[in-house]
Amino acid sequence: MSLLAALSGKSTSDEEILSQLNEAVMQLQADALGKLDAFALGKKEIEQSRQNVIQLLEILQELLSQTGDLQFVIPDTPQESAAKDIVLKLEYRGRPRADWLEDIHSAISNLRDSKPLSDSDWVLLEDIVDILDTELAEDLRELSRQ
Amino acid sequence: MRAYLRAKCAQLEIELNRLQDYIGQQERDATHPVLVSDLKDHLCQMQRLCRRLSAIAENPDAALLKRAHMYLRDYAYLQTSLRVWYLPACFYETDTDRQFGRIIRHLNSRLGVTPMEDLIVSHGRFFTTFPGILRAPIFYVPFAQHQSLGDLPALYHEVGHIVYQHNPLFATELQAVVITHYSELARRTSPIPSVQQEERLKALSWCVQYWNWRKAIRIQELFCDIFAANVVGPAFIFSWIDLVMRQAGEPYQYSECDEHPPDGFRATTCFQALPAACRDAPLVEWMQQVFTQYVSGKLQRRDPVPYAMLCSTELMEKLVNKVSEHLERIGVPVYAGPIPDQSQAQDFADVLDLEGLLNAAVVKLLADPNGYNSWESEMVRRLYAALPTA
After folding, report:
1. Tens digit of each residue's pLDDT (9 = 90 or more) over A7-49
2. Looking at CA atoms only, how far is residue B347 from chain A in angstroms?
3. Helix-helix angle B168-187:B194-232, to 10 degrees
4. Chain B contacts of A6, Cβ < 8 Å?
5. Is the pLDDT of residue B191 over 80?
6. Which residue of B has its CA nearest to A12?
7. Cα distance from A101 to chain B (closest Cα, Å)?
8. For the residues B32-50, what does the mean pLDDT come to?
9. Domain region containing A41
10. How far is CA A117 from the centre of its chain?
11. Are A81 and B67 in contact (CB < 8 Å)?
12. What's the pLDDT score for residue B92?
């Protein structure tokens, strides 16, 4: 009855989320750099990545729009639950919710209109990927201790 | 960074070729076709990540190099799954492991609610599972477990993890139970000064954080206890109490670093989760006395957040009810008893009724400790003789 089983499930879920978002961000970056051919990517894949990122940002936006203590927000789906973890960590960084919301709104807007992402959009995406990466790295360290 | 990535890619390609050979050997061996098929998928993902890393090495850009770090982490996760867990379990699997695997396969077919199509057993550490591939998990069991019924109820807790992870909505709904519980407490007005009220709200928020910490890992552990108590009945509680007393922890203390809820809360939860058919049985009353005696004098600490707030009876009952509701919905067979008496235990006939057999074992051990060894050996012999071979 060690932690291994629960940790394995958690790390599988963390890996899936990180893997999808990191790949989507990479594809958007390759597109922005004009290097789609180097990564054997097509416009259809870029559009899909754009939609995936928008979908995540919209869930984050909805959660951050809530008032009061976010711990008490009840997620309805496993996706919302994963997003809540991200939002709690964003908030932990001490930046006001309104600022995060402003950045998220801008990124969604640029992605929807297929406009180039601004520096602050890229920083936002990096922050989110970084949160997920830190979590998976912690899982891996714990798995190696089992 | 570019030089490192190029070197790393060369190293990973060597590793991938070797892993391909090892998986190929397992494929030719044909013992675990389902597992091998999933290991090949893992390998394909690792090859894809390696190609990405290679492309980044050839097109270096500061932003893309950041992605490379994440790809390496992703690769490390898959690499650990293969090299640390699955391939060693496959390559060092013994006849004894395979023999014990028959018990788990039988248990699985009795339950009928897991996604398990294959499994692999490895003797040598206390009961735990690595369900990295949910339909083909690894079960770790202690050395010589294949000869014994003792501790075997712990296996059901491990199977509980697979059931839980196979149904992601369980986690969401149990988290909702916890959050709703503390939200309701927060809404209840209390005639205390506003400063104290603020402290109370912070404590309630901390309780939600405690239970939902790291994807609600503690709630998952409780689910598995409730699952096992439901399915195996008193035999699971006996095994659990025995484990707690062996480990001699502090049953009413919680720790932010411990991924498991406090033992006292887990024990109360297990008793509450027992099927109605055996809740009032003398064996259960006796186990309650034993546990009460063990915990008497073990006091609750003066923690900033009181134990009674974090591990309240009200919360425990809500969680047990919700899990039982889920188990009933997916059709988990609940232990229906009756608990065998001494004479029924002695002559226990239907060894394939695994949960009945485990309860008979507890009755036999308590009633006749000196005669237990020969009884258990005979039951284990009959069990293997009766189990399907394939």
Report:
1. 999 999 999 999 999 999 999 999 999 999 999 999 999 999 9
2. 31
3. 150
4. 161, 217, 220-221, 259
5. no
6. B132
7. 23
8. 97
9. 4-145
10. 16
11. no
12. 96
Count of domains in chain A? 1
What H or E segment, with its residue span, contains residue A39?
none
Q: Verify whether the Cβ–Cβ distance B61 to A33 is below 8 Å.
A: yes
Instruction: With CB atoms and an 8 Å threshold, state whether A136 touches B214.
Output: no
Interchain CB distance below 8 Å, A72 and B172? no
* Sequence spans of domains, chain B: 2-91, 157-330
Q: Which residues neighbour B213 within 8 Å (Cβ) at sequence distance 6 or greater? A: B256
> What number of C-beta contacts closer than 8 Å exist between A and B?
140
Q: Which chain B residue is nearest to residue A119, measuring alpha carbons?
A: B63
Q: What is the dihedral of CA B120, B35, B118, B224, to 10 degrees?
A: 70
Q: What is the pLDDT of residues B119-168, one digit of tens each?
A: 999 999 999 999 999 999 999 999 999 999 999 999 999 999 999 999 99
Give this prediction's pTM: 0.94
Q: Tell me what the pLDDT averaged over chain B comes to.
A: 93
B300 — pLDDT class (breaks 50, 70, 90): low
Q: Kindly provide the ipTM of the predicted complex, given to two decimals.
A: 0.93
Give residue for tokens 């940790």.
A7
- The mean pLDDT of chain A is 94
Q: Do A12 and B220 touch (CB under 8 A)?
A: no
pLDDT higher than threshold 80 for residue B324 = yes
From chain B, the residues in CB contact with A140 under 8 A are 73, 76-77, 80
**C-beta atoms of B74 and A29 within 8 A:** no
Contact (CB<8Å) B179/A22: no
